[in-house]
Amino acid sequence: MIALRGLPEIRRGADLAALVARAARRQETNFQPGDVLVVAQKAVSKAEGRVVRLASVKPSPLAREWAQQIRQDHRLVELVLRESRRVLRMTERALIVETRHGLVCANAGVDRSNVPAGAGRAGAHVTCLPLDPDASARVIANALRRRTGIVVPVIISDTFGRPWRLGLVNVAVGAWGMRVLEDLRGTRDSQQRVLRGTILAVADELAAAAGLLMGKSAAIPAVIVRGYRFRPGNEPARRMVRPAAEDLFR
Amino acid sequence: MIALRGLPEIRRGADLAALVARAARRQETNFQPGDVLVVAQKAVSKAEGRVVRLASVKPSPLAREWAQQIRQDHRLVELVLRESRRVLRMTERALIVETRHGLVCANAGVDRSNVPAGAGRAGAHVTCLPLDPDASARVIANALRRRTGIVVPVIISDTFGRPWRLGLVNVAVGAWGMRVLEDLRGTRDSQQRVLRGTILAVADELAAAAGLLMGKSAAIPAVIVRGYRFRPGNEPARRMVRPAAEDLFR
Question: Domain A51-128 in CATH: superfamily?
Fold first, then answer.
């Protein structure tokens, strides 16, 4: 795994594929067949202009009321509600929601950290998740292919909490260029027994692996995973969202 | 990440640290300061004799009834109930339970695959989770230190499902020798803003990363993660279990 360092602060309209390819070259590596690129959601959101100045947000009465309950900024809560199609729970500090993409996470992925305060406009800013993270991954993958001639699957990662475990882990909110679920049903284990029911969420494991290098405060928005034998295909990360009808825990 | 191959079939009483150190040497590597060892739960369970011959299990009437509902072997369901302190949900094929360790997972980690059918005794066998996976990790870490002179944190991994996402990912059910949660509160992000609420479950991310190499059918029960800057400490994986009182989803 190769952490790509030294990317500039990402601005709206930034060409992430170009920035990432340049960072790789500066580190004296180049994309190779078999590489997977994991990009932090925040970088993608910034490049897509999904940055909102809090002062520009008019909170509804409901957002004000809930913001008080969870001791959060009422403008941030307003954004969370706009990004959500359903609220599952209210914790002490966050709303657990289903986003418009179907992702279940805290505060709909709306996040304050690592956004330059007053970049251009005055006041605090937050990022929202890309409107279509799978499309974002596809755009980056296509641009990388044009630039390098190599087909590199792209995963867009974000840190999510888990209901029964403490701490956040990185998961794949967007993906393009590989199979995100590795279906081992029908294959045989080391005892030649047919495995059933075993499907690995390999895109989430790739996001988690890259998350070890990204940390949270380090300025590492992208990681190359080299040597993992992914299965080619264009399966969006959306495929890993459990259909609401099969969900036993909401 | 270095996949350790060619370990023999693990039998009760096997010295995992010795087997792993030998496998590393055969692959012309040696443990180095800074390495983390991830071992698949199944190997640990086998070494600890947590293998049960299904024919030896007498199912209760309740186990028989539930087994029919989820179309599972009634002896397997009996074992699941014995390993559990609480049943949360019943899916089409599994019971979602809280194990005696506090882990929320399908079928209490009782698993059929990769157990040699009739090794020694006749009939199908299953593995149960180690009785105390953190203690198991400590034993392996201590044995490795005695053998190699190097302090290597050990993580014991197993594949768990998630309520809102499809596919399994590897998590750390046991750990010793490192901080499993990386608390970034109080640190500053790249904009010098103080991060709050950001705690990364790094042991789970290490387990997920290793899971990419372990696959499920491949005979890779152990992976060395090299170059990850873990924080030393003896924090058990148990620390990552969310206290039931804080759980909003059962």
Answer: CofE-like domain (3.90.1660.10)
Statement: the pTM of the whole predicted model exceeds 0.90: yes
Q: What are phi and psi of A184, to 5 degrees?
A: -95, 5
Question: Which residue among B104, B117, B159 sits closest to A164, beta carbon to beta carbon?
Answer: B104
CATH topology of domain B51-129: CofE-like fold (3.90.1660)
Residue with tokens 């259909």: A243
User: Rounded to an integer, what distance in angstroms lies between the CA atom of residue A228 and that of residue A217?
Assistant: 26
Q: What per-residue confidence (pLDDT) applies to A183?
A: 84
Chain A, window 207-246: residues with a beta carbon less than 8 angstroms from a chain B beta carbon: 208-209, 211-212, 215-219, 228, 239-242
- For chain B, give every domain's residue range: 1-48+130-244, 51-129
Q: Which residue of chain A has the CA closest to B196?
A: A113
What confidence tier does A62 reach under pLDDT thresholds 50, 70, 90? Answer: very high
* 3-state SS record for B59-93: CCHHHHHHHHHCCCCHHHHHHHHHHEEEEEEECCC
**Is a pLDDT exceeding 80 seen at residue B185?**
no
Average pLDDT (A172-200) is: 80
Total count of residues recorded for chain A:
250
Region A192-202: mean pLDDT is 74
Domain A1-49+130-241 in this protein, CATH class:
alpha beta
Interface predicted TM-score (ipTM): 0.94
Give the pLDDT score at B107. Answer: 96
DSSP codes, chain A: -EEE--PPPP-TT--HHHHHHHHHHHTT----TT-EEEEEHHHHHHHTT-EEEGGG----HHHHHHHHHTT--HHHHHHHHHHEEEEEEE-SS-EEEEETTS-EEEGGG-B-TTPPTTSSSSS-EEE---SSHHHHHHHHHHHHHHHHS----EEEEEEE--SSB-SBEEEEEEEESB-SSEE-TTSB-TTSPBP-S-EE-HHHHHHHHHHHHH-SSSS--EEEE-S--PPBS---GGGGBPPGGG----
DSSP element (H, E) containing B220:
none
Nearest-by-Cβ selection for B208 from A1, A205, A228: A205
- For residue B117, give the chain A residue with the closest CA: A191
* Tens-digit pLDDT profile for residues B138-155: 999 999 999 999 999 999
Topology of the domain covering B1-48+130-244: 60s Ribosomal Protein L30; Chain: A; (3.30.1330)
Q: What is the pLDDT of residue A119?
A: 52
Amino acid at the residue A213: L
